[in-house]
Every structure is written in structure tokens, then in C-alpha cells.
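User: I'm putting together a small comparison set for a docking exercise, and I want a reference complex before I start. The sequence is below, and the ligand is uracil. Could you produce the 3D structure with the ligand included, as C-alpha cells?
Assistant: Of course. I'll restate your input first, then give the C-alpha cells for the complex.
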Amino acid sequence: MLIDGRQMHIQIKKGDIGRYVILPGDPARCEKIARYFDEPQQLAQNREYTLWTGSLDGVPVAVCSTGIGGPSAAIAMEELVECGADTFIRVGTSGGIVDEVKGGDIVIATSAIRQEGTSREYLPIEFPAAASFDIVLALKQAAEKLGYPHHVGVVQSKDSFYGEIRPALMPIADELTAKWKAWKAAGALTSEMESAALMIVAQVLHVRCGAVLNVLWNADNDDAPAIPPDAAERGVRAAVEAIRILIREDRAKA
Ligand SMILES: O=P(O)(O)O[C@H]1O[C@H](CO)[C@@H](O)[C@H]1O
Ligand SMILES: O=c1cc[nH]c(=O)[nH]1
């Protein structure tokens, strides 16, 4: 929605950004991510939305924070698409679900469990929240090139952070723990809060979306190894490299 010629929440206009956007949750991460761009500059700052632009291989790219959770992430994507973006990579933090996914790992999402409310206001729950195949492949290629051990598969998106961290204290403890057990038994990799909403909004708007998640810990796994010092940077580097890959592929297709 335009107000005084700018998108109501992200406060930018068509032409301010190009096709490719990296989406962290945390506004403080935007400047750090933009340092990987050529000619980084801050474009806007409103509510939870911080925007930086720059270029990679001569092509305009941007980074925009989504804030925490599906509602604000969906708004960011809707308004970024209005401004011309069509390719999104979420870079976030998460908590490992299956025992093999430990602190310091990175996870590339192929799809997300829709244990949240925002995506249900777009599509019925039967519709899967799936990542763009192009982006999954680009992220995998990027992680391999950078030499980062990585997992590829299903992630879980929920609305309540503390429902994940302290489920036993919630009045619906039985439901939360039964679902977590089911996700784990089925091999869900890691838990976060925005990927499902972003993937469903991308599906509805016919744009591409993928996600790469840094794993902070695995609460069920006591023997987690020491987290590598560059762990927080790994998802960011993989996303930046994946954007370069997509730029090359899109150029070749054009
Ligand atoms: O690190 P970000 O991208 O914010 O992602 C994760 O961290 C937040 C919770 O601490 C949620 O937004 C969750 O999805
Ligand atoms: O365990 C975690 C860590 C980060 N973000 C989440 O949503 N869960």
C-alpha cells in the first residue's frame, strides 16, 4: 500500500531496489550483510524494517529485515514485490530438532512446516510451504563451494518462540510436545519462525523464496560440539554466494 508514494511499512518505492533480496529477521544484521555488497548504502529504516542496497557482480541487490514472525515477514515480502523484487533468500537463526543438527551447522530449507498463523490467511493448510527449487540448488552449490557442512530438508516454522523453548510451561504443553515429537520422528531439521509464511506468500505472488538457517543449538542434544567461530557468518556467506549463482543463471537464461 502506497502512502505519499512509498510503501507504507518498508518506506521505499518502485525502482529503489532490484530483483534480489536477502531477508534476515534482525534489523541489526542488515548492515553486516550489506558489507558483502559493492557500494553498500542504507536506504530506509521504519519499525522492524531496515533496508540496505548495493550490488553483486554489477547487479542491484538489497537486504531487508523482516522482524520476528510471519505477520511482519509477509508485509516485508508483499511490499518488496511491489517495488520490483522477485527473488528472496531468508537468512536466520534456528534451533536444531533432529539430533544430527547441532549448534554451528547450517540448514538449507526445502520446505517449512506451517505451525503458524500468517500463511493460513493466504492458503489452506493442505498447500505445502515449499522453497524455490532454483534457490535450494543455488544454496547447496554455495555451501559446497564454501566448504560448509550443511543439511538440506524440512524446517519447522512456529509463532511462539517460548512455546518451543519452554513447552512444558504452556497450558497446551501436551499438544506442543506431541507435535515436536512428530516433527523429530519425521526428520524435521530445525525450528524457526518466518520461512513458512515467506514461502507461502512467495507462492501466492509467483516469486522465488528460499531459506538458509544458522543453527544456534540443539536443546535435545547434550553432546553438541563447540560452535565454529564463523558460524553466524556461514548462512550469510552462503546466501550471498547463492545470489551470485542465481544472477549468473538468470543472465544465462535471459
Ligand atoms: O534470527 P532470525 O532471522 O530473527 O530468526 C529466528 O530468531 C528469532 C527468534 O529469536 C525468530 O525470528 C526466528 O525465526
Ligand atoms: O531455537 C531457536 C533459535 C532461534 N530461533 C528460534 O525460533 N528457535
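The two ends are 31 Å apart (CA to CA). The longest strand covers residues 87-96.
User: Thanks, that's exactly what I needed.
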